[in-house]
């Protein structure tokens, strides 16, 4: 009876190790490792992926269509990047202008 229990425990350990090695090989073979790892973790823990519907309320307009929501986010982030770039360019232009003024003043003083 004890031998049977030891054999069963050994089988469980071997099966777990084989499964780990199989998963490791699979992960090494895929391109998007992060996505694959999350899928495997969700599968092993029994968590199912729930879809979350995002709703954007923009004043009088309410957007629920995933494609429109995605486009609105894209548009927002493009605007933010353009604003940051224009602020950075403006700052660089001011700095450049200040350097040119200092150089001009130094030439006049000499």
Quick one: overall form? elongated
Roughly what is the average pLDDT, rounded to an integer? 77
Write down how many β-strands occur, each being a DSSP E stretch of 2 or more residues: 2
Question: Number of helical segments?
Answer: 3
Q: What percent strand?
A: 5-15%
* Secondary structural class: mainly alpha
The assembly state of the depicted protein chains is: single chain
Largest sheet: 2 strands, antiparallel
Radius of gyration: 30 Å
Assign a percent range to the helix content.
Answer: over 70%
Low-confidence stretches: none
The order of strands across the largest sheet is: 1-2
Number of domains: 2
Question: Helix and strand succession?
Answer: HHEEH
Distance, first to last CA: 103 Å
Give the key terms.
110 residues; 77% helix; mainly alpha; two-stranded antiparallel sheet; 2 domains
Describe what is shown at a glance.
The chain is mainly alpha-helical. 77% of the residues lie in helices and 5% in strands. The chain has two domains: 1-50, no CATH class; 65-110.
Description:
With 110 residues, the chain is mostly helical. The chain has 2 domains: 50 residues, no CATH class; 46 residues. The protein contains 3 helices and 2 strands. A two-stranded antiparallel ribbon has the order 1-2. The radius of gyration is 30 Å and the shape is elongated. 0% of the residues are buried. The mean pLDDT is 77.
Helix and strand arrangement:
Layout: H1 2-29, H2 33-45, E1 56-58, E2 61-63, H3 66-109
Antiparallel strand pairs: 1-2
């Amino acid at each position: 009876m004890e031998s049977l229990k030891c054999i069963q425990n050994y089988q469980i350990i071997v099966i777990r190790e084989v499964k780990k090695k199989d998963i490791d090989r699979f992960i090494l073979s895929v391109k998007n490792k992060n996505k694959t790892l999350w899928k495997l973790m969700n599968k092993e823990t029994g968590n199912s992926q729930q879809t979350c519907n995002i709703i954007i309320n923009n004043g009088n307009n309410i957007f629920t269509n995933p494609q429109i929501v995605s486009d609105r986010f894209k548009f927002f982030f493009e605007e933010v990047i353009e604003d940051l770039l224009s602020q950075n360019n403006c700052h660089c232009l001011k700095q450049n202008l200040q350097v040119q003024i200092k150089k001009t003043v130094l030439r006049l003083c000499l």
